[in-house]
Design brief:
Strand content: under 5%
Structural class: mainly alpha
Shape: elongated
Helix content: over 70%
Number of strands: 0
Distance between the termini: 24 Å
Radius of gyration: 17 Å
Number of helices: 2
Largest sheet: none
Number of domains: 1
Order of helices and strands: HH
Length: 72
């Protein structure tokens, strides 16, 4: 395996890891919002959920653009 292949594999794992962590954050937000007894914790859970969904949508795309091979 060449160095370029290792770099591409590690970058793929980084993007997949970001998606995994963001998914766990979204589940945490749903749990906090669903099990809360007060509106403050419901709002907190919703905020966690929305921020995790934002991370899932933006960060992997940003990393892919940043690591894109430049056109010759």
């Amino acid at each position: 395996m060449t160095d370029a292949d290792r770099l591409a594999r590690n970058r793929y794992y980084m993007i997949a890891g970001v998606n995994l962590v963001a998914t766990a954050g979204a589940v945490l937000g749903l749990l906090v919002a669903g099990r809360s007894n007060s509106w403050e914790f419901s709002v907190l859970g919703g905020a966690i959920l929305l921020s995790a969904l934002y991370v899932m949508a933006v960060v992997p795309r940003f990393l892919a653009r940043r690591w894109k091979t430049p056109q010759p």
